[in-house]
Amino acid sequence: MENKRPQPDTDGVDDIYHHYFNQMPCFVSIQDHNLRIIDCNQLFRKHFGAKAGEYCYEVYKGRMSKCVSCPVENTFLSGKPQQSEEILKNLNGEEIPVQVFTSPIFNDDGEVECVLEISSDISRVKKIQRKLYNTQKQLQQFFDEVPCYLTIQDQELRVTTTNRLFREDFGSGGGTYCYELYKHRDEPCLECPVARTFEDGRSHQSEEVVTAISGDQYNVLVSTAPLRDDDGRISHVLEISTNITELRQLQDQLTSLGLLVGSISHGIKGLASSLDGGMYMMNSGLQKNDGARIDKGWDIVKRNVDRMRSMLSDILYYAKDRELQYEAVDIHPFMSEIASIMENKATSFNVNFKPDFSPDLGEFTVDQTAMRSAVINVLENAFDACRKDLNKPSHQVDFVVQQDEDRKSVVINIIDDGIGMDQETQEKIFSLFYSSKGLEGTGLGLFISSKIIKKHGGTIELSSVPGEGVHFRIILPKAPAFNGSGYNEIVAISSNHGSTPQGFY
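^ that's the sequence the OP posted. Answer follows.
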C-alpha cells in the first residue's frame, strides 16, 4: 500500500489567521486599487460599520472623494509601506485620531494586488500631548512672567533662552556670549557664577552691574542653578538676576548719610582744634600784652566761627535739599584758579600739566564751590591715571577750555595719557562707590562730578583706549535752565579739597 504525505489543512490555517485578524486591537482593513474595502476586522466594523466594496474615504472620513494625500494610494504607487497621522469619524460622528501604517500585498507576479491598512487609536496619546503642551505653555508663561531676568546658558556661556523681561531690557541675545550681551566685555568675567556652577554643579550667587540696551545700568543679584540632561550631566545653567537697583540706591543714600556724618565729625574736630589754637594765641597775647598776637588769634577764632556757621547751614540744607547758589562767574579766572590748585599735584606726580583756555570765554552761571569741586575731581582722576601708568617715561594732562560754536556753552576737555579704561570700567566709572583705584579710591569723586554737572544742565562723557589714556569732555550751558532745585547731600560731601575744613558744599 503506497504511503501518502498528509496534506495541510489550509482551511483551518485560514480560520486561525482570520481569527487573529479579527482580534487585533486596532482598525484593520484591506483595500484594492480603487480604495474599496475588501475586508476589515471586527473592531473596524464595530466603529465604522463598513461593508465590502465601500470606499474607505466614505466609510471613515465622510468624504465624497479620496483624500489629497492617501497612504494606501501612495503604497500602491511606490510599493513601499507608508505611515501618517489621520482623523477618522466613527458611526456616532466622533473623531478618532489614529496613527496609520500601510503595507503592500503582492501577487505571484510581484505586483501590488491590495494594501493592508492598520490604524491605531492614539486618542490617549493625543490627550497626553495636549496636557504636555498646556503644561509647557504654562511653564513658558511662568518663565516669561517671572519679575527678574532669566537666561539659560550653555557651557560656552552662550545665551540660549531668555524670558520676556530680559528681552525687553537686553534684547533677545540668542547665541550671544553673556559677557558681551550685558557686560560689554570681550572675555568672560573673572568670577563667573555660571562657570562655577558648570565646574562644581552647585548654585552660586554674586552681585553684578549690567548695562541694558538703553544704556541704563542696573545692580542685579545673580543666582545660578544647574540643568542636567538624561545622563545626569550638566548641559546648561539657569541664571536668575534680580534687579536690586532701587535697593542699592536706598543703601547709597543711607551710606551717603553716614559719610556726611563722618565728614561733619572730622570737620567739627578740625574746627575745634583751630579754635583751640586761636584761643591759645589770644591768651598768650593777653599775658604778654602783645596786640598783634591777640589780633591774629581773634582772626583765627572769627574765621572758624564763620566756618562752623556754614557747616551748620549745610547740615540744614542736607535735611531740606539745599538749593544751588547760582552766580555769574568769569570763566577764565575761574578755570585759572583751578589750574593753579592742581599745579602742586602735577609737580608731585611728575606730570606735564598743560592748561589751555580760549581768551574770550565770557561768563557762565554756576555754583562756584560745587563746580570747582566737580572739575577738580576729574582732573585728580587724570593725574592718578598717569601716576599708576609705569609703562611710559613721562605723562601729560591737557586741560582745555573752549566755547562751542554758538557761544552758548563751555566745553571742558581733560585729556590724559595714563592707563586708560576698558569698556566695563567706562560704563561703571560714574557709579556711586565704584573705584578703579582699588583700595586707594572711595568711589565718590567722579560720581559727585557727574551729579554736579547734570544739576547744572550739563553733560559729562568719556572715551578711552586701555593703555593709551582717557578723554573726558564736559559741556556746560552758560545760562542753565535751572528749576531752583539744589544739589543733594552727595554734593555736600565732595567739596573739601583743602586740609582745613572749608564748609561742606
